Task: inverse folding
């Protein structure tokens, strides 16, 4: 698959602070790429560099095959839309005027698509209300609408769920999925809300201290995530013995419950327990989350 | 560039600060001309004086409009947005400079037109040739453009609406006071009433330097231009033809410095 964005050995130094340290990553076309990392890990710095707001200290990136050192990169940026930290919107204007302004900046002669964009982000009924009177969620949605002017192929969203209520988060998620599936828009999202990110992303990049710890696809992540079952039984001793005989790693949680790691044949286990006269009271699948995967990854890197 | 200019002028049209300043300048043009007529109805007062007499207001007016208008670009993320949209930094800078210049010139025009409309019926028309009036207008436009260029540079380099507003208003007031001070020295008589040499009168070398400085400062230029038809101008060799060149040099230097700084500026 062709890469939409390719970053190679990117370094950004602010005086004594190394914000990005020889970072390399690849975003395939059509992907929803989740950038995961704690505060100060370099997510926003990377986004600022990609958007041309700052220059890298060393290394380079290419957007649709055009290097950042090539003057043609400015033209290539017309294919991308971005919301970096706070949305770039004029507070003394209405939502419609802001979109018109964005159309002018992009050199789009007709304002035909504005109604659809307002409809898409749920701001069609804001009328003459100035942006200064909008809620944080409405501003965020307008920011995304601004980024979508000119039908970009690549959308960069820095913390898009910031300040949104649960309903707003769901709406933004639906919007991003919609854009990705229907319009094949490649999306780069940085977010702290890992649970939300795990519902969207097809690829992940884990950042820590300006370095890329791991780049992984959602399918690979799913395979890598350790699976286990949590089982509640009438006779815990029988369960422990049976698990031991079957070569399973069994961790006792309380007087009736234990957690068995690794892939288990549930039928074999239940039949073996029945032979011992042990009843299975409940059985649930446990899956390692993106959050615990990230924590393990960061934990491994700690000295 | 055309897209950026189109977007900037649309925003200027929607900017309340600009319209408030425009109304203020137009009202000032009317008021001060009418005031002069009420106080000295018989004294000769040419349009060359009252139409170009906005020099003491335009500095602060331009500072406020430029900083509040352009500052919003930084405050609301407009500059960032333009760069992400694929416009180069020099285009963003030059489009901002052009709109600021246009806004400042329009403020001056607001004063000029109302002063003309109010003053010409009672004091009469221009007394100098059309060519000279055109030179005065060109010089005025360029001296106003110097203010816009200075304020654009400060705003684009500081990136803060409030800091740049304070800096620019102080700079405008400072330039005005400096021009007044230089003017006072240039007006000082060489000899006192009793025939002794005036200790405040500068030597020939200093006098020459102050004359050039007076012509270089946009505030000084404003004063020189509004004195064009006065018979008692103390400066013997006012190089009227050079005033646009001085302005051109200042615009080139400030724009060059601003472009250089802005091209390296770290944006957030």
Result:
């Amino acid at each position: 698959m062709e890469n939409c964005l390719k970053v190679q050995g990117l370094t950004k130094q602010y005086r004594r602070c190394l914000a990005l340290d020889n970072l390399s990553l690849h975003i395939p076309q059509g992907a929803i790429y989740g950038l995961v990392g704690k505060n100060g890990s370099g997510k926003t710095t990377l986004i600022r560099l990609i958007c041309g707001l700052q220059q890298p200290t060393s290394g380079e990136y290419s957007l649709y095959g055009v290097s950042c050192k090539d003057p043609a990169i400015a033209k290539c940026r017309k294919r991308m839309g971005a919301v970096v930290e706070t949305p770039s919107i004029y507070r003394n204007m209405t939502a419609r005027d802001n979109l018109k302004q964005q159309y002018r900046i992009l050199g789009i002669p007709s304002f035909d698509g504005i109604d659809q964009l307002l409809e898409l982000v749920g701001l069609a009924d804001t009328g003459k209300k100035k942006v200064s009177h909008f809620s944080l969620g409405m501003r965020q949605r307008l920011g995304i609408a601004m980024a979508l002017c000119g039908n970009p192929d690549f959308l960069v969203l820095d913390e898009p769920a910031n300040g949104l209520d649960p309903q707003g988060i769901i709406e933004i998620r639906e919007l991003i999925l919609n854009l990705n599936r229907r319009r094949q828009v490649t999306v780069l999202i940085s977010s702290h809300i890992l649970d939300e990110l795990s519902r969207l992303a097809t690829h992940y990049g884990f950042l820590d201290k300006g370095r890329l710890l791991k780049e992984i696809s959602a399918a690979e992540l799913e395979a890598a995530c350790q699976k286990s079952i949590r089982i509640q039984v009438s006779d815990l001793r029988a369960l422990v013995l049976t698990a031991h005989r079957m070569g399973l790693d069994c961790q006792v949680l309380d007087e009736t419950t234990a957690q068995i790691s690794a892939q288990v044949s549930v039928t074999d286990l239940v039949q073996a327990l029945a032979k011992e006269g042990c009843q299975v009271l409940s059985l649930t699948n446990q899956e390692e989350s993106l959050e615990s995967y990230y924590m393990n990854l960061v934990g491994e890197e700690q000295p | 560039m055309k897209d950026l200019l189109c977007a900037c002028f649309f925003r200027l049209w929607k900017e309340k600060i600009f319209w408030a300043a425009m109304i203020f300048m137009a009202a000032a043009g009317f008021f001060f001309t009418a005031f002069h007529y009420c106080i000295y109805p018989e004294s000769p007062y040419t349009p060359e004086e009252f139409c170009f007499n906005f020099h003491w207001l335009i500095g602060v007016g331009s500072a406020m409009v430029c900083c509040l208008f352009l500052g919003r670009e930084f405050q609301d993320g407009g500059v960032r947005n333009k760069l992400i949209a694929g416009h180069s930094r020099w285009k963003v800078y030059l489009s901002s400079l052009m709109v600021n210049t246009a806004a400042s010139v329009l403020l001056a025009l607001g004063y000029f037109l109302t002063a003309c409309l109010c003053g010409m019926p009672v004091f009469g028309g221009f007394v100098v040739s059309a060519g000279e009036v055109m030179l005065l207008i060109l010089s005025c436009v360029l001296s106003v453009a110097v203010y816009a260029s200075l304020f654009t540079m400060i705003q684009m380099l500081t990136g803060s609406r409030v800091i740049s507003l304070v800096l620019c208003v102080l700079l405008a007031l400072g330039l005005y006071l400096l021009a007044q001070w230089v003017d006072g020295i240039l007006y000082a008589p060489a000899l006192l009433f009793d025939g002794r040499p005036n200790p405040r009168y500068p030597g020939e070398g200093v006098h020459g330097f102050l004359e050039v400085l007076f012509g270089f400062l946009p505030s000084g230029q404003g004063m020189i231009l509004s004195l064009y038809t006065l018979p008692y101008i103390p400066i013997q060799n006012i190089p009227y033809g050079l005033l646009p060149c001085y302005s051109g040099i200042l615009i080139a230097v400030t724009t060059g410095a601003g472009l250089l700084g802005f091209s390296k500026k770290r944006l957030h």
